[in-house]
């Protein structure tokens, strides 16, 4: 094994962060210049002043998107393995079987145990086939509270453990009688009372799927650098037959690959944690990532980012591994499930406003929390900007707005916001070898066009939903951490209408106001307002079994894991990990 301190290159964090900041400033200056050209002619109205204020609130998020995307794109087009540029520990992985003991910790609550346990079998069998099973223990950590479900869960676990009895990987099950602190409390209770002599734990969710090769690589990284507290693997969507997750995760995958590579390059040892498909070192996590309740007594909902920044503050490294292979998760099967998940995340991320003032955090840690806040805070600002622009047009204030700069601003803003995804597609189209697992360049291009249309219809709905939810939250609404639906199903028209009528009404009122204003004002608002009007049919269509079946049949938005060669590729990865 190579000594980490002797082999890792100097990374010059100040220079990297200066480069990122410069990219953000240039993006911000360009967008601000376009905005000035749009608003300044003919003098300023009060509504245009409100547009400016909302825009300035959104601008940091646009700059983050563009800055991370440009860096990630450049790094991924360089020769060699892109992940080496951001995680040099990959070059000095130890040889032989793992030395450290690792707990495979899977958190469950009211889950379909058949699906959960079947997804674990390839991982357990792979680790045992690699001769590493004796260094791992599987722990299922239950927060199920309903007695009937708990009994079914325990029976399934007993049968599973019995079937694997005598094999190297031990199977353990623990259920809490009270789910204090939700998932974070579940994990810490396990570490305090059951972790034993394990040095590491791999945090998994009920819908996580990881390959043995990926897990062995994460363990090797922790052994290569004893100052690593968390290594967060990139996570991609598992193959999906339902239309909504199939199209959504095609674009998410392209964008996250680019974003994570760029972000990891400049954040270095103070990277993110997304709560699962990551490996963690038990001792520092127990010492520094224990979460107390908020000042009002509520538990912290989005635990992952604050756990990471507390480890930053204690001098431990948190790194992101921007590699996709062998790390999957399920995505919400329908639009209502997606919106419900977004609301949970939004409620948790907005709690970070109270945590920004915690003493001892690093500047990068506070920036990490601020990024998580901006992800959701941008939604009401977009809605405010739209409302102000509509009212400005309705009152005659937009009569002198020049069409050229306005079109330029809209296109530049769209390009900055979606830069990670667009450059992710560009990477695949420029590098034919990377497009091959998707079916080739033509398949990537077809999938990209379909996904861009999908996103054009989806994002106005999600932005409106986030904004309405945060508005309710600011007036005392509460959001708990409820079990997730993971089963694809069709959506009835009446159910879609019951959920999405406020979004449709918002689109109707906005479009009516712009039509009443006369001229071409309606055309400028149509890209946002028409998708709101179409939210109900969009919801029904993307949950339709017939439409979903058609997408699968024609192979649209196919991911590498659907390829016939994916099993062979996984087997080769496992063999490489075993030999390494």
Layout of strands and helices, then pairs:
Blueprint: H1 4-7, H2 13-39, H3 46-77, E1 102-108, H4 113-129, E2 136-142, H5 147-163, E3 170-175, H6 182-193, E4 200-204, E5 209-210, H7 212-224, E6 228-233, E7 236-237, H8 243-267, E8 278-281, H9 282-288, H10 303-313, E9 317-321, E10 327-329, H11 335-350, H12 352-355, H13 363-394, H14 403-417, H15 419-430, H16 432-435, H17 441-474, H18 493-517, H19 521-533, H20 535-542, H21 545-554, H22 566-579
Parallel strand pairs: 1-2, 1-4, 2-3, 6-9, 7-10
Antiparallel strand pairs: 4-8, 5-10, 6-8
Helix pairs in contact: 2-3, 2-14, 3-8, 3-13, 3-14, 3-15, 4-7, 7-22, 8-15, 8-17, 10-13, 11-17, 13-17, 13-18, 15-17, 17-19, 18-19, 18-20
Q: What is the share of helical residues?
A: 55-70%
* Number of E-type strands: 10
- Strand arrangement within the widest β-sheet reads 3-2-1-4-8-6-9
**Helical/strand content category:** alpha/beta
Strand content: 5-15%
Give the overall form.
globular
Number of domain modules: 2
Q: Quaternary status of these chains?
A: single chain
- As residue ranges, the low-confidence spans are 1-6, 567-580
CA-based gyration radius:
24 Å
> How many DSSP H or I helices?
22
N-end to C-end Cα span:
11 Å
Largest sheet: 7 strands, mixed
Mean pLDDT: 89
């Amino acid at each position: 094994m190579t000594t980490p301190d002797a082999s890792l290159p100097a990374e010059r964090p100040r220079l990297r962060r200066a480069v990122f900041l410069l990219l953000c400033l240039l993006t911000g200056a360009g967008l601000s210049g376009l905005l000035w050209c749009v608003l300044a002619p003919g003098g300023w109205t009060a509504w245009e002043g409100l547009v400016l204020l909302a825009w300035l609130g959104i601008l940091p998020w646009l700059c983050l998107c563009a800055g991370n995307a440009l860096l990630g794109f450049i790094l991924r087009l360089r020769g060699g393995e892109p992940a080496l540029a951001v995680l040099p520990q990959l070059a000095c992985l130890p040889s032989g079987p793992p030395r450290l003991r690792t707990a495979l910790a899977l958190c469950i609550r009211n889950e379909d145990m058949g699906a959960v346990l079947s997804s674990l079998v390839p991982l357990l069998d792979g680790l045992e086939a690699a001769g590493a099973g004796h260094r791992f223990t599987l722990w299922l950590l239950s927060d199920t509270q309903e007695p009937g479900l708990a009994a079914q869960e325990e029976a399934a676990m007993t049968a599973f453990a019995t079937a694997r009895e005598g094999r190297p990987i031990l199977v353990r099950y623990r259920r809490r009688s009270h789910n204090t602190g939700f998932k974070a409390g579940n994990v810490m209770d396990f570490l305090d009372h059951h972790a034993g002599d394990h040095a590491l734990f791999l945090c998994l969710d009920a819908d996580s799927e990881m390959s043995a090769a990926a897990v062995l690589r994460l363990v090797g990284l922790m052994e290569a650098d004893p100052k690593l507290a968390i290594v967060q693997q990139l996570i991609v969507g598992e193959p999906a037959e339902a239309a909504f997750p199939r199209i959504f995760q095609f674009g998410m995958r392209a964008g996250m690959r680019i974003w994570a590579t760029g972000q990891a390059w400049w954040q270095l040892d103070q990277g993110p944690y997304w709560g699962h498909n990551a490996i963690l070192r038990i001792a520092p996590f127990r010492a520094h990532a224990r979460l107390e309740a908020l000042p009002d007594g509520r538990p912290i909902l989005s635990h992952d980012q604050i756990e990471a920044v507390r480890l930053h503050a204690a001098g431990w490294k948190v790194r992101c591994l921007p590699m996709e292979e062998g790390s999957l998760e399920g995505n919400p099967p329908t639009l209502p499930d997606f919106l419900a998940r977004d609301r949970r995340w939004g409620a948790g991320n907005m709690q970070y406003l109270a945590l920004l003032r915690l003493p001892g955090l690093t500047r990068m840690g506070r920036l990490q929390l601020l990024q998580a806040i901006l992800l959701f805070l941008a939604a009401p600002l977009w809605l405010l900007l739209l409302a102000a622009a509509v009212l400005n047009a309705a009152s005659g204030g937009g009569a002198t707005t020049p069409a050229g700069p306005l079109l330029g601003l809209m296109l530049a803003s769209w390009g900055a916001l979606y830069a990670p995804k667009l450059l992710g597609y560009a990477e695949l189209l420029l590098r034919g070898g990377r497009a091959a697992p998707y079916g080739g360049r033509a398949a990537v291009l077809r999938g990209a066009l379909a996904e861009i249309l999908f996103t054009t219809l989806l994002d106005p709905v999600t932005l409106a939903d986030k904004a309405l939810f945060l508005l309710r939250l600011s007036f005392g609404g509460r959001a708990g951490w409820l079990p997730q639906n993971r089963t694809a199903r069709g959506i009835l028209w009446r159910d879609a209408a019951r959920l999405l009528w406020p979004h449709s009404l918002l689109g109707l009122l906005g479009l009516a106001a712009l039509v009443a204003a006369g001229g071409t004002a309606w055309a400028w608002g149509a890209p946002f307002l028409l998708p709101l009007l179409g939210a109900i049919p969009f919801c029904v269509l993307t949950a339709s079994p017939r439409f979903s079946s058609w997408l699968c049949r024609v192979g649209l938005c196919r991911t590498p894991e659907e390829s016939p060669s994916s099993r062979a590729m996984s087997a080769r990865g496992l063999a490489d990990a075993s030999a390494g």
